[in-house]
Amino acid sequence: MPMKNNTKEKKNGLWAEAWRRLRKNRMAMIALVVLILMVLCAVFAPLVAPYDYTAQDLENKFVYPCLAHPFGTDNLGRDIFSRVIYGSRISLQVGLIAVSIAVVVGGTLGAIAAFYPKLDNIIMRFMDIFMAIPSLLMAIAITSALGSGTRNLMIAVGLSSMPQYARIMRASVLTVKDQEFIEAASSIGASSFRTIVLHILPNAFAPLLVQATLGVGNAIMSAATLSFLGLGIQPPTPEWGSLLSTGRNFIRQFWPMTIFPGLAIMLVVYALNILGDGLRDALDPRLKN
Amino acid sequence: MLKYLCKRILWMIPILLGAIVIVFSLIYIAPGNTSAILLGDSATPETIAALDAELGLDQPFLVQLGRYLKNLVLHFDLGMSYRTRRPVMTEILTRLPNTLKLSLLAIVLATLIGVVTGIISAVKQYKMADTVATGVALIGVSMPPFWLGLLLILAFAVGLGWLPSTVVKGNWKSWIMPTITLGTAVAGIIMRMTRSSMLDVIRQDYVRTARSKGQIEFKVIMRHEFRNALIPIITVIGVQFGSLMAGAVLCENIFAINGIGKLLVDSINKKDYPCVMGAVIFIAAICTVINLLVDILYSFIDPRIKSTYKGVKKKADDDESEDEDEEDADEE
Amino acid sequence: MSEILLEVKDLVIHYFTDGEEACAVNGLSFDLAPQEVIGFVGETGAGKTTTALGIMGLVPNPPGRVLNGEIIFQGKDLLKASEAEMRKIRGEKITMIFQDPMTSLNPVLTVGDQIAEVVLLHNKMSKKQAMARAMEMLEMVGIPGARCSEYPHQFSGGMKQRVVIAIALACNPELLIADEPTTALDVTIQAQVLDLMRKLKEDLKTSLIMITHDLGVVAEICDKVAVIYAGEVVESGTLKDIFTDHRHPYTEGLFASIPDLDEDVDRLHVIKGLMPSPTDLPTGCKFHPRCPYATERCASERPKPVHLSDTHMVLCPRAGDGGAQKA
Question: Structure pTM?
Answer without folding.
Answer: 0.84
